[in-house]
Amino acid sequence: MGTLLHCWWECKLVQPLWKAVWRFLRKLKIDPPYDPAIALLGIYPRDTGVLMHRGTCTPMFIAALSTIAKLWKEPKCPSTDEWIKKLWFIYTMEYYVAMRKNEIWPFVATWMELESVMLSEISHTEKDRYHMVFTLMWILRNLTGTHGGGEGKKKQVRVGESQSIRDS
User: Fold this and answer.
1) DSSP three-state, residue 7
2) How many angstroms separate the CA atoms of 61 and 74, rounded?
3) How far apart are the C-alpha atoms of 57 and 1, rounded to whole Å?
4) Tens-digit pLDDT profile for the chain (168 aa)?
5) How crowded is residue 8: how many other Cβ atoms within 10 Å of its Cβ?
6) Would you give the DSSP letter of residue 167?
């Protein structure tokens, strides 16, 4: 029986996931120290620029912790794909909250770059599924006018076999 620090951070089964999280952060040009206090406790160092990226880092860490917890008793590594699924769920919920509050631009600033990195990291089989979800999200953005357009003339957009009307 190990310590909680071992179970959540030091165990050789969870280390590949944490390394993937940090690799992901580096792709976003965020480089926090590789420290369990940041990921497990949310304690960010004040003397680095990482503190201002807390809104991006924290959901990534929560998704990783949730992925580890789900596989707690299984003798296998939590996969990056599972982590990205959880991160995608958080991303989707943040998107809908931002739309509801009419605060889409802070969401865009935080998550849109993350979206492209998520697509680059997931496996090919998962990519097809997420590509469809990204496409549906794009259509939803355009249909609801959250892309920066306001009231304007109506324009028909063909979506698969159906047609819908959106603001242009």
Assistant:
1) helix
2) 20
3) 30
4) 468 888 899 999 999 999 999 998 998 888 889 999 999 999 988 877 777 888 888 999 999 999 999 988 888 889 888 998 898 888 888 888 888 888 777 767 667 777 777 777 776 556 555 555 555 566 666 666 654 433 333 344 343 433 444 443
5) 19
6) E
Query: Which structure tokens are listed for 162?
Result: 């159906």
How far CA 56 is from CA of 29, 110, 125, 135, in Å, comes to 11, 6, 26, 22
Domain boundaries along the sequence of the chain: 4-117, 123-168
**Nearest CA among 42, 31, 92 for reference residue 64:** 42
SS3 (DSSP) at 104:
helix
Residue 124 is encoded by which pair of tokens?
Answer: 């090919």
Distance of alpha carbon 156 from the chain centroid: 31
Q: What is the pLDDT of residues 109-129, one digit of tens each?
A: 667 777 777 777 776 556 555
**Cα radius of gyration (the chain):** 19
d(CA 77, CA 100): 37
Please give the Cα distance from 43 to 138 (Å, whole number).
Answer: 35
Distance between CA 61 and CA 86 in Å, rounded? 10
Angle 92-109-142 from CA coordinates, rounded to 5°? 60
What type of residue is 109? A
